[in-house]
Amino acid sequence: MATRVLKFEGWHLDLIAVQPMQKAELAKVTPMLRLEIERQDSWTLEFEGRLLVCGGAIPLVSGCRALVWCYMAEVGAADFWKVHRAVRAKIDEFATKYPRLEMEVVKGFEAGRRWAKALGFREEPMGGSHELYVRLR
Questions:
Q1: According to the 3-state scheme, what is the secondary structure of 68-132?
Q2: Residue 83 · residue 69 · CB < 8 Å
Q3: 63/77 Cα distance (integer angstroms)
Q4: How far apart are the first and last CA of the chain?
Q5: Which of 53, 65, 93, 118 counts the most CB atoms within 10 A of its CB?
Q6: Mean pLDDT of 53-79
Q7: Helix (H) or strand (E) holding 61
């Protein structure tokens, strides 16, 4: 079965068994926020009938800067590379629209840090409970 990219709908987040480090962050996504991100450039990745990733880009400054977000299920190594390629393609697409993409990763989430770098982001100093990663066109 092929990988499909679907239009994101808020209820998709309920069907993704996110990684443990993302559970607390996902709990902060209110029903109103879900509706708002449905209206943004957001998508869901389905693989073999299972929803694996929800993600998107939220414009921060129209045409200049966007926040990239992603909630991902735990996947095995073989499926990870399929997911990675699909997510990388979407981020590459966002990069054509926004010269600066930003992504925040919870401090201590090592897999998230490694993935941000593999997606072409570099760390930029920021205080608080998250680390900021940026990708410039």
A1: EEEEEECCCHHHHHHHHHHHHHHHHHHHHHCCEEEEEEECCCHHHHHHHHHCCCEEECCCCCEEE
A2: no
A3: 35
A4: 34
A5: 53
A6: 92
A7: strand 50-61
